[in-house]
Predict the 3D structure of the following.
Amino acid sequence: VRADLVIRNARQLITCAGPAPFAGPRQRELQVIPNGTIASEAGLIVFAGPDAEWRHVAGPATGIVIDAAGRTVLPGFVDPHTHAVYAGDRRDEARRRLAGASYAAIAAEGGGILSTVAATRAASDDQLFEASRRRLDEMLRCGSTTIEIKSGYGLDLDTELRLLRLIRRLDLNHPLDIVPTFMGAHEVPPESRSARSAYVETIVERMIPAVAREGLAEWCDVFCEAGVFTPDEARTILLAGQRAGLRSRIHADELASSGGSRVAADVRARSADHLIFATSDDIQVLAGAGVVATLLPIAAFYLKLGRYGPARALIDAGVPVALATDLNPGGGFSPSMPFAMTLACFAMGMTLEEALVASTINAAYAVGREAAVGSLEPGKQMDVLVVRDDPMDLLRVGAEAIELVIKRGSVVVERPGDS
Ligand code: NIG
Ligand code: FE
């Protein structure tokens, strides 16, 4: 077997191999190879298995060889829900939340998403590109190697298209792989407040066709919540997206129980996200429809909601669970998948194994990239993290346990280890 990159002798090689998604008891089955070696050629994995086996099949050593003795090697994280392209910031709102104001109250006063929409519309392409690129660098340093990004801070045809073109430009100019989502239904724009149905019509009749014509998105997302889009509106928009070739995902039951989970099941969305207020009936409905639950504990934490998505009940009901950061200027204050995993483990009752599956193969499945990334198997991309010691170290927030981030066979982040 020819290889231009080999990582040898990991204490544990965590592959997450197997058919996606991992649901129920399988959500804990990481597939760990002790003394493992992984090899790639031209960015694609050609071998993942015991080092003893590699010694038999290895071709002449020509490329880079990394000694991973004592380390854990695992798939790069996939972050399946971000709003990383925006201008301005809302640190002032975070300060107000610290003083006791709620996210909903701040949004009702014209803060929230609409204040970012104003800043984003006013920004130039280059300003947006630079600000977003820095956020992507942060995510990469935290171990994400594929991320989803939504539009949704434009809310008019021109700005939404501009944001999706910027997402494409970022994908082409940054080591991260980016999965693009159209989210014109993130909020009702200020100029349409008295004409809501006309805005839904604009999304369906003008925005979705234009996005599809230019091939700018793979997914369509809607914020289904009281005061934002109703379940009926969400259904209409998501089905229009499907007719144009955009697959469905949805923000559901984030701030209250609002019917979003049912919409997800009705339209056969790939993923229902947040679910903080999903009921046990909602959970059964999601399980029956094969929808992935993407949980975003970072948002729940920084919004001070005092509760989290029902991870345990979802897993027990057989719903595959994924994790994401929800990076955004409101509650998505952290770019770190390891921080999302930490909250999942220490505030939501998930095990480390479940959180790792949720951040790799299930997250890849949540964005439809399960054939290319999310697990370490021959034919998939060589997107790999080398972690000092044990994967439990990922949960030591601030300890920088990730020594190497490798994207398509290239080292893109390198932190000096201490041995
Ligand atoms: O996922 N819920 C809607 N969207 C984001 C918040 C975006 C914002 O506040 O700017 C979310 O939490
Ligand atoms: Fe979101």
About this structure: The two ends are 30 Å apart (CA to CA).
